[in-house]
Structure formats: structure tokens, C-alpha cells
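From the thread on structure requests for the teaching lab: each student submitted one protein with a one-line request. Submission from student K.M.:

"Model GH18 domain-containing protein from Pisum sativum, C-alpha cells only."
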Amino acid sequence: MLSIFRQYTFDDSFEQVFISNKFLKEYQIALTFATDYDQNNIPTNGIFTPNWDTTKVTPETITDLKNKNPEVNIKVYISIGNSGTKFPFCPRNNKTWILNATKSLTNIIKNYEDCDLQVDGIDVLYECIEASPVDFVECIGQLIKNLKENGVIKEASISPSFALNKEYYFLLYKSYSSLIDWVDYQFQNEVVPVFAPNKLTEVYDDLVMEFYPRKKLFAGYSAENEDWATLSPIVFFLGGMNILKKRKGPGISIHYHNYYQQNENNE
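Reply posted by the TA:
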């Protein structure tokens, strides 16, 4: 069983992950997060800056990881968005937001490319949106289109959760499905707790039937302790293995709790 594993991280904790080509055909590092807010938490209308630890996530650490694992395809994503209610999506002007976001993310990615840190794509993970579905679709969809058409990225993913899925993310997917390579559904944000592995697979099957193609749909999970009340590690492990083996899902993702702990310490 060869699949894709994605790790959301703000630092170089990916160096501690065991990567084996017996299980993985691809390992994705999603850097959390790029946000369009200044140091005073004021929205900048699309001018994104990195919030991950740029002293630890370096060209050298990525190159070293790739050199140690030559038989596994390793990719780097920049995740734009937020966790919880901090840094919500709230453009002041759609046209300006799109221009600013395209330029600022291009600058971030190109700066890394100059240092041989190859960024393969962006991930869109907003848990809080203070805009209409139409504005969300226009801004994010056009951003992805611009970055792909300009050759800045090769791939794009969206990471919906229950509360925003149908009204926002699925509308975005329907409008730009040809430009969206992966859908990383965040199971830790279910309204009704998932207490059994078969319930996890039922939700996954429902998503395939109603919203997204199976070949693009990841099962996403958060290892943050506070999310265990909704979905425990053992339930996700057993359900996730079922999704990969029997449901033929392409991959799974995990948020490691050190990101949230680090941000809490900085507040």
C-alpha cells in the first residue's frame, strides 16, 4: 500500500518522521501558516508573510531530508489560512487582495527557490471566514489560477471542514476543480464527535458521494490534545487505515500539536 502522507508543521519536526518507500510514495510538508496580517494582527489585504520558523525550515533542512530519502517524492506546500478564529479570511477589496496575494506569495516562493528550497504548491486552510462564499471563491480561485498560470506552483490543495465545507469549499471546488489537485478534509472539526473507526469511514464515503472525487480526497487529522474529544488518535488510525486500504483513498494528513503550543506561547 503506497500512499501520500502530509505533515502540517511550523518548524523542522519533519526531520523526526520515519519515511519509508514501503509505505509512502509521497511525503508532503505543509508549512503553517502564511497569513495576510501585520505584527499588530491587522489585515493587510492579501500581503502574505510566513509565520513558520524560517530559522529551522531552511533550504538545507529540506535538501537534507530529500537526500536521506531519495526513493520517496518529497514536496513542500505553503499553507495559507488560520487555525481557530485568529487570522480569518477577510479581504477588504477582492481585486486588490488577489493582486497582493499573488505578488506576495510569489515573492515568498521565489525567495525560497533562489536558495534551492523548492515549493511545489499552496494549501488553503481557513477555519474562519469573514466574507461571503462568492468573495471567497473569487479570491482564492483566482489566486490559485494566477500562481499556476505564472508557473509559481505546480499543485494546489484545499482543506475544508464541516462548518465551511458545503457553502464555501465545495463551491470553490466546483468552480476551479481542474486547478485543485487535492482536498484534505479536516475530520477533527466535525460537529458530532467521531467515536468509532467505521463512523470515520462513513463520513469519508458520504464526502465522496456528495462532494469530492475519491482520487483527490485525503483524510485529515489534528494531534492537538484538545481535538481528541472529537476524534481520538486510535479512532483516526484505524479509520484512516481502512480509508487507505479499502476505500482506496490517496492519503492522510496530520497536524502536530507543537505548532499550536508554539503559537500559544507567543500570544
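TA comment: The radius of gyration is 17 Å. The chain has one domain: 3-266.
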